[in-house]
Amino acid sequence: MRQLSRRDAMALGVVGAAVTFFGPREQASAAAKEAADQITKFTGGKTATSGKVSIELPEIAENGNTVPLSVSVDSPMTADNYVSEVLVVADGNPNPGVATFQFSPLSGKAEASTRMRLATTQNIIAVAKTSKGEFFTNQKLVKVTIGGCGG
Amino acid sequence: MMRGGFLAIGAGLGLCVVGGFVVAGAGAQDKKKEAPLEISGDASVRPWKRYAGWPARDGSKWNTLAQLASPPVPKTPRKLAGAITGDAAKGANLVADRNRGGSCLACHVMGPAGGANLPGNVGPDLSEIGNAGREDEYLFNYVYDPRVYNPETVMPPWGGHGLFDDQEIGDIVAFLKTLKSPAAFKTELDNPDKRPAPVEKRENLDPIENPGMWAVDKAQDLWKQAGVAGKSCQSCHADAKTEFKTWAASMPKWEPRLNKVLGVEEFVTRHAKATTGADWLMETDENRAMSVYLHFLANGAPIHVDTTSAESKAAIERGKALSSRKLGELNFACTDCHGKSANHWIRGQWLGEPKGQYDHFPTWRTSLLAIWDIRQRFQWCQVNIRADELPPDAKEYGDLELYLATQNEGQALSVPGIRH
Amino acid sequence: MAEKPRLKLPKEAKKGEVVEIKTLLPHIMESGQRKDKDGKAIPRKIINKFVCEFNGKPVFTANLEPAIAANPYMQFHAKVEESGTFKFTWTDDDGTITTAEESITVS
């Protein structure tokens, strides 16, 4: 595994410096709009009900390079009632898409954990689709720490 | 020398003849053999060049751990001709500008400045300083060089060291005068006094949790790699697990042949060169992997370095003195952040005490996707406070590392660590 | 083939048990956002898909975007009704496929 220079790492994952990296508010709302578009595409325009989806995230991420994420959906995961897909978006990243998880009754649980790169403080939004064609959603704010003096 | 004892050791460990060295028993007082070391040359790249991604600032005007260069401390505040004028809006931006060495928000809550977004609390909350009845000239001088009012301050001399010019300080003063009500934090987490201290809970020895564990695998391969002399580490150290069960926890150590304190990384460079012929300079991937591995083999062992010999004592005294030397344009000593200001926030980062800051090195750094050993950590701290770093094998770093090790006496090693 | 994947899952389970699986693949996950020293954008090169199958049937699939951190880590579950083999597949943007397998005894 090769080592990255600090500047490389800063560009890869943006260590703090939220304001200078993303500049004006327009860019922030462009990301939010793109995130909303991805959700609309996922649900086919249907409304997602708040609930059933749990998102586990640190309240403050020590840096944006590796932020642990856990998404779980309350579901029996039986052949006639299971979560088929979960979309995760980050509404403050230049490319808001994070991942799409696909489950089946063989999954046992509609739960997945991974690690994300976050450019700035933002909301993580998860939308779950069930085999019955229903959509559920939840979101959580994660603050990406601003470094003290770059250390 | 106790002949019987020597023979027993010789028979038990076997005599290695490597690269012309006969590794014989050392002096009468040593039960172990003296490890061969390459005494000549440096253990890191010369001339030392700063890492490409690090700020390229020239720190030659300021103190380093190896030289004194910073201007003297003024004895009295400046007497300013005329009124101090400034633009409060500009001041509001300056105090939140991370490109200016902080700036102020790194240590102070300051009302609405920077959106009250994760300010620090090393210094007092200045949100109501506009009501404190301070003269403009006092505020100006405090920012210009606080040492004239508080010789023990950790605050940088923003004007005295040229970080802000007089007009900018005037802008900052104008802004300070507008601060008349407590900061409105968006969430409790933004309030440094309410923010819970971070606790490291990750399973640092789980390879799935800590990518740094790659170094253990790599080192195990390097261990068996034959060098130019046809020998590998394995040739003399077949049972690494047993042999090095506590070794790393006894490092760093005074090395009389080099007249300096040797840390694990420099030991690896010089010992490898003198035995297998391997060229593993400090801060190369191979060296880092070996350092991780040698510490890893001693995981759980309590850190316990020699504090009894005259040389060790002298080195520890030097290290202690170096830890309180003010360095760089920002004029910080190790003890400023990790002593006086320990357990406080600089912006969103927690300042730790020395105890607990050594036992997990070398560590994986999640923000950089890289393993850092303690010398690289020292170097970065220096560059961050706008001081020139020294080459990793600088004797001053050895003294400092030995002092840091004494402050971590009894801490169990847990390497590789995983940190920001 | 990329670096060796790391896997963590139980060797045995009871019929019908839901087991936890952790996987990690060393991979830089080049996001496409970084610039090289000449200011040119470094092209994106990530693992864009991860699939876990059990005895040939999909158990868990993840379509990944550049926001997934380097050294992609996935933790998920599988309900096992019979003994068999888990197969894990990572697909790189450049088409490289990395696979790993692990058996489990189910009684």
Keywords:
heterotrimer, B: 420 residues, mainly alpha, three-stranded mixed sheet, two-stranded antiparallel ribbon, 13 helices, elongated, disordered N terminus, C: 107 residues, mainly beta, Immunoglobulin-like, five-stranded mixed sheet, three-stranded antiparallel sheet
Can you characterise this structure?
The complex is a heterotrimer of chains A (151), B (420) and C (107). Chain A has three helices and nine strands; from the N terminus they run H-H-H-E-E-E-E-E-E-E-E-E. By secondary structure, chain A is α+β, with helices and mostly antiparallel strands. In chain A, a hairpin with a 4-residue loop joins strand 8 (122-130) and strand 9 (135-144). The two termini of chain A are 22 Å apart. Chain B is mainly alpha-helical and 420 residues long. Chain B has helices spanning 3-13, 88-95, 136-144, 166-176, 214-223, 233-236, 240-243, 264-275, 285-296, 310-323, 334-340, 374-384, 395-407, and strands spanning 17-18, 21-22, 253-255, 260-262, 345-346, 349-350, 363-365, 370-372, 417-419. In chain B, helix 2 (88-95) crosses helix 4, helix 5 packs across helix 9 and helix 10 (310-323) packs across helix 13 (395-407). In chain C, 0% of the residues lie in helices and 52% in strands. Chain C has strands at residues 6-8, 12-13, 17-24, 47-54, 57-64, 73-80, 84-92, 97-106. In chain C, a hairpin with a 2-residue loop joins strand 4 and strand 5. Chain C starts with 5 loop residues before the first strand and ends with a strand. Chains in contact: A-B, A-C, B-C. At the A-C interface, helix 1, strand 6 and strand 7 of A face strand 5 and strand 6 of C. Strand 6 of chain A pairs antiparallel with strand 5 (57-64) of chain C, so a sheet runs across the interface.
